[in-house]
Amino acid sequence: MDTADWYRNFGTVDAPSSSPCYAEWSLGIADDPELIRRIEQWPHNKRQPLLILAAARFLGAGITPYPGFREFLDANWGEVSRIVLSRATQTNEAGRCATLLPSLAGIAAASGRPLALIEVGASAGLALYPDKYAYEYHRGPSVTRLAPQPDAARPRADEPPMLRCTVQGAVPLPPRLPDVVWRAGIDLNPLDINNPDDVAWLEALIWPEQDFRRERLRRAIAIARQDPPLLVAGDLNEQLVSLAGQAPPDATLVVFHSAVMAYLDAPQREAFRATIGTLAAERGCHWLSNEGHTVIAQADGSVVVPEMDDARLRGRFLLLQDGVPVAVAGPHGQTLEWL
Questions:
Q1: What number of CA atoms fall less than 13 Å from residue 269's CA on the CB side?
Q2: CA distance 75 to 62
Q3: CB–CB of 118/243 below 8 Å?
Q4: Sheet of strand 142-146, all strands in order from the earlier edge strand to the far edge
Q5: Which residues share a beta bridge with 184?
Q6: Strand 230-233 to 162-168 pairing
Q7: Is the separation of the CB atoms in 181 and 248 below 8 Å?
Q8: Alpha-carbon torsion, ordered 213, 216, 217, 220, to 10 deg
Q9: 96, 76, 57: which is closest to 202 by C-alpha?
């Protein structure tokens, strides 16, 4: 799709249920030829809707009708462009742990060993703490709750975030959280949870009306600061094997990612799958892929998940475990439908 269609799709499919503001802004941009012309002066991978919207929010754009947003862009275009070109959509949504947890717990239970986790495209590494967060799984009137062991010495302000998820189908909810003994991530530009600008960028990536996600982010950051993850800067295809070699050999290794494959071209994705295959054969590594229904406007037109009907997945993620589709998930971890 061209740039205007990209924004129109975001405004009609992805944003409406979560952010009326972003839906209106995206549709306004789609129908604004002059703004589309400016956006198309950026490299293709910098034209995605969430990036310019987050850049504007990072710089102080308020929740206003589109004309006010357009005025803000005109007044601050140089700074908006600078942020877009220097930052990336590194949304670090801890809520996705709710959709990953059943698979992680199942892998740990089947192996009888604790887990070693590697996230590719880890941002600040907040999704590397599935064992540290609290969960509520809702199925109609029934609620299943899971939480870490309480710590009497922990201040109430540092309580773990509560991740709420609505489930459908035979989701294998675990009786307890899995044990994680090692956690690491790879990112082209890891974000530092002790850097105020990086934290402000993480907050700007949260959609305007979703204050509950901002609170969740702050609590997840507090957890991560108590036990910072190992984050490696670099290309995932260049760093994965060496990082996997640092994982404890007596733990079950799981490599996972969410909304990452969209940023790789077809040869890079094939290389990644080949590496995963090698790690599976040599190390018994497991693989969780949590990705959107298509690659974001890749030049080669290839898709991430050709296994599923496009209409069923629109606006949601497909969760694959060791290459096999197991669930359809909300992109921020809000729903999990087991296949």
A1: 18
A2: 14
A3: yes
A4: 142-146, 134-139, 162-168, 335-338, 324-329, 317-321, 286-292, 252-258, 115-120, 180-187, 230-233
A5: 118, 230
A6: unpaired
A7: yes
A8: -160
A9: 57
Beta bridge partners of 232: 186
Average pLDDT by stretches of 10, the chain with 339 residues:
92 89 97 97 93 96 96 97 94 94 98 97 96 96 92 68 96 96 96 95 93 93 93 95 96 96 86 94 95 57 57 81 91 92
Distance (Å, whole) CA 89 – CA 234:
16
Confidence at residue 156, expressed as pLDDT on a 0 to 100 scale: 63
Residue 306 CB neighbour total at 10 angstroms:
9
DSSP 60: T
What does 137-183 look like in DSSP terms, one character per residue? EEETTEEEEE-PPP-TTS-GGGPPPEEEEEEES-----SSPPPEEEE
Phi-psi region of 327 (alpha: psi -120 to 50; beta: other; left: phi over 0): beta
Nearest to 338 by CA among 173, 129, 104, 174: 173
Which pTM does this prediction carry? 0.87
SS3 call for 300: coil
What distance separates the 2 farthest-apart alpha carbons in the chain? 59
Q: Which residue has the tokens 């030049």?
A: 299
pLDDT at 253: 98
- What span, in angstroms and rounded, lies between the C-alpha atoms of 52 and 34? 15
272 contacts: CB under 8 Å, gap ≥ 6 = 120, 236, 237, 240, 261, 264
Contact (Cβ atoms closer than 8 angstroms) between residue 99 and residue 165: yes
Give the contacts of 243 (CB within 8 A, at least 6 positions apart).
118, 184, 186, 230, 232
Q: Which residues of 46-71 are buried (b: 16+ CB within 10 A; e: fewer)?
A: bbbbbbbbbbbbbbebeeeebeebbe
